[in-house]
Every structure is written in structure tokens, then in C-alpha cells.
Amino acid sequence: MPRAFKESPSDAASSGGILRASRPAASLLLLAGGRGSRMGGRDKLYLEFEGSLLLEKTLNAIAWLFNEVVLIVAKGDGAYVSKRLSRLLARWNVRVAEDERQGIGPLEGLRAGLSVMKEEWGFLLGCDMPSPMEDVINCMRRFCGRGADAVVAECGGYIEPLHAFYGRACASAAERAITRGDRKVKQFYDDVRLTIVREELFKNYRGYENSFLNLNTPRDIERLRSVIDK
User: Fold this and answer.
1) Of the listed ranges 38-42, 135-139, 167-171, 205-209, the one predicted with least confidence
2) Higher confidence at residue 24 or residue 155?
3) What's the CA gap between 145 and 153, in Å, rounded?
4) 88-103 mean pLDDT
5) Domain containing 123: what range?
6) What are the residues facing 51 on neighbouring strands?
7) How far apart are CA 188 and CA 215, in angstroms?
8) DSSP for the chain, written as a single string
9) pLDDT tens column, 47-83
10) What does the pLDDT read at residue 199?
11) How far is residue 193 from each of residues 78, 147, 166, measured CA to CA in Å?
12) Residue 5 has pLDDT above 80, yes or no
């Protein structure tokens, strides 16, 4: 049974919850994604906005919050990505890791990232989510630690598996899920200790919804423009 929190860890402690006010060290795990059919077949890793890669915007916003950055790409793409994005990756000291299996999707990307990261926790983020917010991430991060293997957020009534913290223990759970034929990240949640951070906790952060903005269509890019203009 997942635990759901509507209050901060310090508040939770006073009401019988678990105190986790510290922010454990973590790795940033960026999912390269793939070709978006609704994006005209363009590879999301190389999408640009106002003359810069969206990936660069993401790194500028949050890379400094983490002890390392790992970019997870499809099997066989590592050398090409490393060469094409060499300057950007060098600037942020980004490591490139490959999926071991093809055609699995984000679940294999998460498993691959967890297996190579140096820290005990990894923050998984899709490369098509270009407006992550420091406050939202740090709010979630406070729930990482004893008693949880994964910390996910709720927004708009939905759980956000590609904007979430995963502990190293989730690697084996993801592996088991893949073995039994699962393809969605959420399908291994019943096998781990899951903490859900309810949306109420984010409402003090202006524009918190933008942290979960996902770009699937050209129209979504226009939505990003309105977010930046605010």
C-alpha cells in the first residue's frame, strides 16, 4: 500500500509521519526518449526552442542540484549521441548510458540508469519535460530515505512516473517487471515501498504544474512559450 503525504516531512513527523527533512544525495537520470510520432517523427532529444536544445534548458535549470547527470539513450546510440552533443555533455560532465535491451521503453531506461548511477537515489526525468522546478524537486526529495524506495508526485489527479525519485532497490523490481512482460514504469510500484507526494504540497510554489509539462506535439511547444513568457 503506497503512503500518500499532503504535508511536509517536518509536519508529518509531528502528526505521526516519518521525519525526513534532509535531502539525500542523488543522481539526475535523463531519459533520451525517442522519435515522437505526434512530433512529426522528430527525435525529442534534439528538439530546439528559441535556438537552443531543450536538453540544454533542462540542464541549466536543475543539473546543479545533483551530484551527477546520466543521459540514458537507446541501445547502440551512445557513441552517436556522445559525439553530436559533445560540447553540451562536457560542459555539465554528463555520462551517457545505453539501454541493454531495445523496444522496452522508459522502464528499461530507468533500470539502466539505476544500475549505473553512483548515488543511492536517482531523479528520473524525461528529456521532453523541459521546465522542471527546483522547489518541486526539492519538496519531493525530502521524502527520500528510510521507509521509501520510490517517491512520486501527483499532479492533476495523475501520478507522474517520469518526474520521480527512485532508490537503487527499484532496479531489481524494474528487472522483474520487464521479465514478466511489463512495459510501464508504474507496473512495478506494487513491488516497492512507494511514497506519493500529493498535489496539495506543491500549491505554495507558483506555476508548479509547469514542472510536469510534457512535450508531445508542436502545440505543446507553444504551451512552453507561454510558460517562459510569464
Assistant:
1) 38-42
2) 155
3) 16
4) 95
5) 3-229
6) none
7) 25
8) --EEESS-HHHHHHTTS----S---EEEEEE---EEGGGTTEEGGG-EETTEEHHHHHHHHHGGGSSEEEEEE-TT-HHHHHHHTHHHHHHTTEEEEE-SSSS--HHHHHHHHHHH-SSSEEEEEETT-----HHHHHHHHTT-STT-SEEEEEETTEEEEEEEEEETTHHHHHHHHHHTT--SGGGGGGGS-EEEE-GGGGTTSTTGGGGG----SHHHHHHHHHHHH-
9) 887 778 889 989 999 999 999 999 999 999 999 999 9
10) 96
11) 32, 7, 10
12) no
- 151/3 Cα distance (integer angstroms): 10
Amino acid identity for residue 214 in this structure? N
Q: Which residues contact residue 108 at a Cβ distance below 8 angstroms, ignoring those fewer than 6 apart?
A: 99, 100, 101, 174, 178
Of 150, 76, 159, 66, whose CA–CA distance to 110 is shortest? 150
Name, in order, each residue with C-beta under 8 angstroms of 67's C-beta and a sequence gap of 6 or more.
25, 26, 27, 118, 119
140 close to 8: Cβ distance less than 8 angstroms:
no
Q: What is the pTM of this model?
A: 0.87
The letter for the amino acid at 36 is G
Q: How far apart are CA 22 and CA 121, in angstroms?
A: 13
Looking at residue 91, which CATH number applies to its domain? 3.90.550.10
Number of structural domains in the chain: 1
Q: What is the mean pLDDT of the chain?
A: 86
Q: Higher-confidence residue: 19 or 141?
A: 141
